[in-house]
Design a protein that fits this description.
The protein is an alpha+beta fold. The chain has 2 domains: 57 residues, no CATH class; 50 residues, no CATH class. 30% of the residues lie in helices and 7% in strands. A two-stranded parallel sheet has the order 1-2. Strands 3-4 form a two-stranded antiparallel sheet. The chain is flat and about 45 Å long. InterPro entries: GH (IPR017853).
C-alpha cells in the first residue's frame, strides 16, 4: 500500500508493471467553504484529528465484502483481490491475532 501523494493513478502507472499488486491509500481533505489556505492545514488537521479519526476508522470495512467483477490484468476480478471476507475464510487473514498468513496456500 502506498500513499498516492495527491497524484492520479496515471501519474504513477509508468512506475509499475501491469502485474504489480498495489493499493493506493487516498487521503481526502474537506474544507467547508471558508477561505482556506495551506497555512492553516497543520492547525486545522490537529484540531479535527480526533473527530476525523472517529469517522474514518471504519474505512477498511468498505472492502470487507467487495464483490467487484471487473477483470484485473493478470487474472481474476477485483473481488479476488479486495474481498477481506474471502481472505478471512481462506485463512490469509487471522482477525483475532491481526496476523497475515505467510503461507498463502494453507487452508
Amino acid at each position: 500500500m502506498l500513499q498516492g501523494g495527491f497524484r492520479p493513478i496515471d501519474f504513477w502507472a509508468a512506475n509499475f508493471t501491469s502485474d504489480t499488486n498495489i493499493v493506493f491509500d487516498v487521503h481526502n481533505y474537506y474544507f467547508d467553504g471558508r477561505t482556506s489556505t495551506s497555512g492553516i492545514c497543520p492547525r486545522w488537521s490537529a484540531a479535527v484529528a480526533k473527530t476525523w479519526a472517529t469517522y474514518t476508522q471504519i474505512g477498511a470495512c468498505w472492502t470487507y465484502k467487495f464483490l467487484g467483477n471487473v477483470p484485473v490484468d493478470g487474472g481474476g476480478t477485483q473481488g479476488d483481490y479486495w474481498n477481506y471476507s474471502a481472505f478471512i475464510k481462506s485463512g490469509i487473514l487471522h482477525i483475532a491475532s491481526g496476523v497475515i498468513s505467510t503461507n498463502l496456500n494453507s487452508k
